[in-house]
Amino acid sequence: MTNVDNKVFPSAKLGVEEEFLPSEGTYVENGEVRGSLFGKVFIDKERYKANVIPFQKRKLGIKRYDKVIGEIINVGRSSSRINIKYINNKPIIPDLSAIMHISDTSKEYVSSLDDLYAVGDIIRATVIDAKTIPIQLETKSNDGGVIFTLCEKCGEEVEKVRRDLLECSNCEHIQKRKTAIDYGNVNIVAEF
Ligand SMILES: [Zn+2]
Fold it and tell me: What is the domain-level CATH number for residue 28?
């Protein structure tokens, strides 16, 4: 196997179908072989195969059912983006990008993600698929959901007053969040 030693972004052109067969981490579009993820390109010249090997999952060994802690960086219509900062209480640098689809956020029906999460929330989630990039998360279990957030009006601390309802200690604003069962009692002890 020839190591080309090239880092590529998703959809980077690796060659044309006449040169290589698409293999792991690649796809074909209009006769062109492209990478489907962020990783390192390996071209196997003997078998005429192009592969893209993802970096992150190799280094971190993240797998299904792992518990992660991360920050919500985007809330969209059907999914939210999360930057993972801890895997099983081990801090990771740099952050690892993850996504959570609306159907994986709660056991109950969710009509809008804005009722559950907002940008800046720190959440605990479970990995449902670590083989994809970004990694896919869910917060359906009791320990899943927001473990830390601030008042969206004044930025002060908020307390859990009822399940999934948080009240500001300063301005009494009430905000809705999918909260983890131990919200307010979370003590992250980083393991190295
Ligand atoms: Zn407030």
Answer: 2.40.50.100
